[in-house]
4-hydroxyphenylpyruvate dioxygenase
Amino acid sequence: MAAYLSRLHHISLHVSNVDKVAHELVSRFQFNVFAARLTDRAKQLALRRGSAVFVVNERPSEAPRRLNERQDLNCLYGAHAHYPVDTVSNVCFEVEDVQRASAALRDRGLCEFLQPPTEVADDSGRVTFSIIRSPVGNVCHTLIDRSRYQGLFLPGFHQVRTDSETAGRSQCPITHFDHITYACPRSSTAHITRWYRDTFGFQRFFIDRNEDVDEGYVLNHNGIGLRLTAMEYWKCSESGITLPFKDEQEPDCKFVIAESLPQQGRNQVDTFLDQHRGAGIQHIGLYTEDIVRTAQTLSLSGVQFFSPPPAYYTEVGKQDEIVAAGHDPHALSQYGILLDTDIHTDTDSQRYLLQVFTKPIFREDTFFLELIERRGATGFGEGNIRALWRSVQAYMENEERHETERENKQSTPS
């Protein structure tokens, strides 16, 4: 039996400089620090915007020298984080019963446990958690039961009050995590989707109505070599789990697997695998109720966005499509926002979504964020996928060219 998930609780980043990354998320992306855990060996900061919660952990600069150091270096509720680059490596889920879920997974031999069921407590109650390794690079999953906990976040964390708790909220209406995208090696998708199906009961989500069941959604022409396969889990509202933050309805979060196809040469997925030293989380979609206002607010705070080719906004029919959806093409082009329409033939209703990618937030060209606004559309938009791909690809190629020029200058005798 699969270990069915109740909800996505938080996503953990493991970075060499916690304060720097947390400052970026607060000052530029308008997140709020609301809880912290500080010890002699660990620093963990919890930040939120709506129900989207990041926990930023300080990764050790070197591996533990003795086995008994392992737990000391671990961040609470996360696996040992010795990794050569900054990374997003833990997606934490709530489950109804950690002991039962862990026993079911162990009996079936479906996964490797990095931490067996463990109980922690403070004055606000008790929490049980376990950690398992996923089939995607360094990504692991913490399973957590906080039904007996009444505190703000988790045992071991203390509340942090900031003056910016409500500042800018109306200008930056980010509410939850919309999707998580993995960058994976070629021919690994089938194994990954089976693992999530058997382990957590994930179901296939079809990005396009004409998508092949086995092949996924494939773009393999005009310089784009990409395979996308999406999954989703049962919506949490059916489980009866109480949310840690009041007055919030539990959204659905999809998981997307991206792998490159060899026919079109090396691309941004290959770049991620090289710079990240393996498969991992490439980007996370943040849902916003008003993408134009959010992009404007973040841009003024210093966030940089990928821009599609200028011709995108002048393509035949695109301007009419944007106007028909009630948007101004010029306003969207200011921030590189893309719009894709999904017309449902059964109802003739027009549904659409808007998306934009940020530039990478780590030193390496690995992890970045996405803003997404949905107006009835549940997929990702074929036209948007192509335009986003080209905008990221152009940036990656430009960065590689600059890096080559820098290396050539350093190797040339003065």
